[in-house]
Amino acid sequence: MAEKHFKYIILGGGVSAGYAAREFAKHGVKPGELAIVSKEPVAPYERPALSKAYLFPEGSARLPGFHVCVGSGGERLLPEWYKDKGIELILSTEIVKADLASKTLTSSSGVTFTYDVLIIATGSSVIRLTDFKVDGADAKNILYLREVDDADKLVEAIKTKKGGKAVVVGGGYIGLELSAALRINNLDVTMVYPEPWCMPRLFTADIAAFYEGYYANKGVKIIKGTVAVGFTSDANGEVKEVKLKDGRVLEADLVIVGVGGRPLITLFKGQVEEEKGGIKTDAFFKTSAPDVYAVGDVATFPLKLYGEIRRVEHVDHARKSAEQAVKALKASEEGKSIEEYDYLPYFYSRSFELSWQFYGDNVGDTVVFGDADPTSPTHKFGTYWIKEGKIIGVFLESGTPEENKAIAKVAKLQPPVDSLEVLQKEGLGFASKI
């Protein structure tokens, strides 16, 4: 059995892995010290592109165009970059066993990797309808989106089912972005989700009403308050119909499921402390296991701003947590210390001609401002969240870069608010003057 040793191993080849590698390079990692072990066949890339520009009918994004770190305005790290830095990219390699006590990882082909320091950057896997034994959920053309391979299958299906009927199961991030992408590709699109409105983890009913109205005007049909309970397929095994819990049956040439993800932490069960569905870390992303860090989707970390611990599934945190872990690791080697991670939650999305950003926390009273009419040619609106007399969260649709910076500042500084009525009248003006 082959064995390879590295001083540092990053397990996982997503966004976090790429940003961690760049941080290691900034700290002068020596050739042969660092390896990235990934089950994907390609170097780390900016995953958000898969649900956006990758699916455009014209001018679509393709690798190597969106390798990290272009998503944050940084250098594009091609496979050659890793080679030049002496960082080993071990791709198409699935780790099936992790023994943190002996600092050993074992691959599905029986190769053993040993390390001095491990960074767990395994990310999430999509939740599949087959996991819940949904009848007929294994039919062809029932697709999911997580990796480039998934996106390629989706692009192929869009081509072969040109002008056909697509059903999108799920009303969150992926559901909204993919419904838009399918519509741009001239498919007949129906969204199905059980909640009373889309993106319920973030959107209020008011915010959701704008997007549901906008999507309806673009020709997307929306069915709320029910779920897919079964699928029928044709003689070729391709999906033909979606059966809904409320008794309705939808024709479908293509089904895309976006019902959430699960952090990939099974390998480490019983070996690290867990909390809130993730691996518990400190403000430097150190886990309870010696010389083991966890970053991105899998980490449950102290959110200093709100004095609580959270797990955040978003590309911004994937990037920043990876950089923080490497800085902390290198500082500890040199007997130095660094600032604790002080993260401002940030989410964004783009679909059709729309683009929104959100900063902070979405709890408390809300104040809606601006033009939230989905038929308006000049729509621009937002929401403030106010708790205990302070603004703690801000959402803005169609903001300029300067306006988005302003709302981020408000969410970070948490200015006091005397009157909700005055705040509503001032709207975006309030943020711009902070």
List keywords for this structure.
globular; seven-stranded mixed beta sheet; 9 helices; 434 residues; single chain
Polypeptide structure, described:
The chain has 434 residues and is α/β, with parallel strands linked by helices. The protein is built from 9 helices and 26 strands. The strands form 6 sheets. Strands 1, 2, 3, 4, 5, 6 and 19 form a 7-stranded mixed beta sheet that branches. A 5-stranded parallel beta sheet has the order 8-15-9-10-11, with helices on one face. A 5-stranded antiparallel beta sheet has the order 22-23-26-25-24. Helix 1 (15-26) links the parallel strand 1 and strand 2 (34-37). Helix 1 runs parallel beside helix 6. The longest helix has 19 residues, at 315-333. The N and C termini lie far apart (62 Å). The mean pLDDT is 97.
Regions with pLDDT < 50 over 5+ consecutive residues?
A: none
Calculate Rg over CA atoms. Answer: 23 Å
End-to-end CA span: 62 Å
Give the mean pLDDT. 97
* Beta-strand proportion: 25-35%
The helix content is: 10-25%
Shape: globular
Biggest beta sheet summary: 7 strands, mixed
- So how many helices? 9
What is the total tally of β strands?
A: 26
Structural class of the secondary elements? alpha/beta
